[in-house]
Amino acid sequence: MVDGLQRILREADQYFMGRSELHEAARRLARIFDEMGIVYAIAGALALAAHGRRRMTEDVFVLLAPADLARFKATWLGRGYVEVTPGLKTVRDTDLGVKIDFLLSGQFPGDGKPKPVVFPVPRSTYPDAGGLRVLPLDVLVELKLASGTSAPHRGQDLVDVMELVRALDLPREFADGLDPSVRAEFDKQWQLARIVDDT
Questions:
Q1: How much is the pTM?
Q2: Which of 19, 25, 64, 134 could cross-link with 98 by S-S, CB 3.0 to 4.6 Å?
């Protein structure tokens, strides 16, 4: 039990110092994408951390255009990457053992059903965070709200928004720049972020 706790603490230390295998897997992908001329954006917990909400994760989430995912797979499957399930989006870095989840432009967050918020085409102008291109804050928040409100099992996405509001002290008016379909949920998370525990 003690050994297990020590291992978890070591992994957490490496993760929050940006030296984990997950970070290395993300940097490796970024180098590959840059060499191939593929525009990408890191999403998920790594993007959250870049904006001020730090939590551990086991996967790297990457936004790509569908054609670019096809190009990446055609070139790199069998050369350090394998599909987790043949024909689907997720791959594994075989050297580091890290799972890479691809989010595709034009698809819908959360339950996958059509909605006003859609995964965008990544842009080369997206912010750089330690050599990784990440989703801008407004896009990240919008996607997480759309995901969490449409898929009950994606509740962590709503918690992430609440914690971003706390960490960055986001104003209530931040909602004005979001898609109208998610503004009410942002306001709800904004209010929840204002609750202070007495303990």
A1: 0.89
A2: 25
